[in-house]
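Lecture 7 notes: from sequence to structure.

We start with a single chain of 296 residues. Read the sequence below before looking at the structure.
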Amino acid sequence: MQIQSDTISAAKAFNPVKALPQRNRKKKPVSYSQLARSIHELAATCDQKKSQRQLVNSVFPKLAVYNSVDPSVAPSLLMLHQQCEDRNVLRYVYYYLARILSDNGSQGLSAAGGIPTPNWDALADIDVAGGVTRADVVPRIVDQLSAESTSDDVEFHARRLAALKALTSSSTSSSEMLEKLSEIVFGILEKVADTKQKRKKGIFTKQGGDKESILRSNLQYASLSALRRLPLDPGNPAFLHRAVQGIEFSDPVAVRHALSIISEIAVRDPYSVAMALGKNAQPGGMPHYPCFLVQF
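Now the structure, written as tokens:
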């Protein structure tokens, strides 16, 4: 036993056990300018799986902690929107395009919290020629999303819904922008109206159907939720008409959106709501709407 112990001691002396270096778990925070630069670089190679994984797993999630998104990343986001087909990447692209449209341009902490965005840092590092402003990119974003949200191509149905949601997130301080959004939403509601079809189930259950019916139901939900995001316009008969029309939609969530809009309008203008509901009453004289609306 003594010989064995001496042998082990000698072996340890000649071959000491090396202590494994401890990994430093504290990672340096990534600056906004680094994230913006990464988006520019990875967007150029968005056809590669490696670039897509970096965007989804690293870059986009870290960018979300900032309370606003600088317009300087919009050209790269639009490039990804046009050229990339990865669903996870596109979800982030629509999300950040919506944030750019909804941003009022103010600096500092927003009501929702988050880290203030150092716009000057990103612009100074990336675009030394003068920077990119909201006035440069917002029209491009609106045009691109508008074209997609009004497309009837079934192959891009999911992207159409995402584009409509992102588009109606934009700031409605401009009357021109509000008019454009209303025109798009009203146009979709006109196409998906199915007032001649009788509902087979209640407003809290979905009813099945073929592919065309499912696509129509999806558009009904998306367009009514978009209408609800627009500023309430009690004095606009077209706005009220589209909301009343939504009560007869086949999608239950769309119906609930329509009821919510009508209830809000009824508080301000009960007479117009009563007249609009009366026009859509069944021939028997009793409207087939939920009875609690009769009080308006």
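Residues 30-171 form one domain. Keep this in mind for problem set 3.
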